[in-house]
Amino acid sequence: MNYQIEGRVAVVTGGSSGIGFATLRLLLAEGAKVAFCGRDRERLSAALERLRGEFPDADIVAHGCDVLNAQEVQQFAERVEQQLGAAEMLINNAGQGYVASFEQTPESAWLHEAQLKLFGVLNPLNAFLPQLRRSGRASVTCVNSLLALQPEEHMIATSAARAALLNMTLNLSKSLVEQGIRVNSILLGMVESGQWRRRFEQRDDQSQDWESWIAAIARKRGIPMGRLGKPEEAAQALLFLASPLASFTTGATLDVSGGFNRHL
Ligand code: NDP
Predict the structure, then answer these.
(1) What's the pLDDT tens digit per position in 189-222?
(2) Mutate to test the pocket of ligand 1, among 26, 39, 63, 213 (most ligand atoms within 8 A of CB)
(3) Which domains does the chain have, with CATH numbers?
(4) pLDDT tens figures, 44-69
(5) pLDDT tens-digit profile of 120-129?
(6) Which of 22, 120, 166, 239 has the fewest CB atoms nearer than 10 Å to its CB?
(7) Cα of 117 from ligand 1 centre, angstroms
(8) Dist. CA 162 → ligand 1 center (Å)
(9) Which residue has a Cα nearest atom 6 of ligand 1?
């Protein structure tokens, strides 16, 4: 399949690990020029080195920045335009979830989740918008979660913030359609990635290995496909929505949850 993105510029926020990193690999395999960001400089350099090893001739920019810092994101956008040309695909992936019930969630966590899920998308969008506008066939694709439609008590603040993001992206799709910018989201269930690796490190039963630990989670949570998703599976959905193959799709969500969705 030809994704029609050869030579085009794609930006992935939070590309140094997990789903973002898998997305960069797919974009590069399709011949795109890519830029990504993350806060941890060592993780960023390690990711850049791996990508350069795999795609030695590719155009790649790795930039240290926090998506919540509008000024840093603006500098990232300027560097991308200078080094690669105008961005045409923005994939908003940076972030992580907050696991806590109502009783365990302090006000600071509510505020941080709301800020991360909304401004983690708004800051990159504002910074890259002038570039996206020039494309005529640009896309913004957001990594969101099934929690947006199917809230979970043990992630109450993340669920609410995810719903707000979904609401905002639908509106953005209407606001930006006349500028030739499509806005879509993927809704994830549980996907093996950095945040699950970190939870694994803190598991109660340290004798359990990774495979049996994630299989037990899939069983306990009742994921119909009986496993967690792979980062590449989320990345494939992002690649499709970001690419011109989804040229008549905007304001949409694509479920990547192994059948975990129970909403209509
Ligand atoms: P990872 O932890 O593997 O990757 C997260 C990436 O985002 C890292 O590169 C991280 O780098 C970066 N990042 C996090 N916060 C910021 C920030 N403020 N500014 C810039 N970069 C940031 O996790 P996943 O791949 O799982 O997560 C990707 C997205 O998918 C997240 O938004 C997550 O909430 C969402 N998601 C994941 C699910 C899952 O089961 N895996 C389920 C539902 C949603 P660094 O820390 O160095 O900044």
Answers:
(1) 999 988 788 888 998 889 999 988 998 999 999 9
(2) 39
(3) 9-191+230-256 (3.40.50.720), 194-228 (no CATH)
(4) 999 999 999 999 999 999 999 999 99
(5) 999 999 999 9
(6) 166
(7) 11
(8) 14
(9) 14
Residue indicated by tokens 């956008």: 77
Residues with CB under 6 A from ligand 1: 13-20, 37-40, 43, 66-68, 93-97, 143, 145, 188, 190-191, 193-196
Please check whether residue 168 is in contact with residue 121, taking contact to mean a CB–CB distance below 8 angstroms: yes
Q: How far is CA 52 from CA 38, 46, 56, 135, 231, in A?
A: 17, 10, 5, 27, 20
Query: Out of 30-34, 76-80, 88-92, 199-203, which region has the weakest mean confidence (pLDDT)?
Result: 199-203
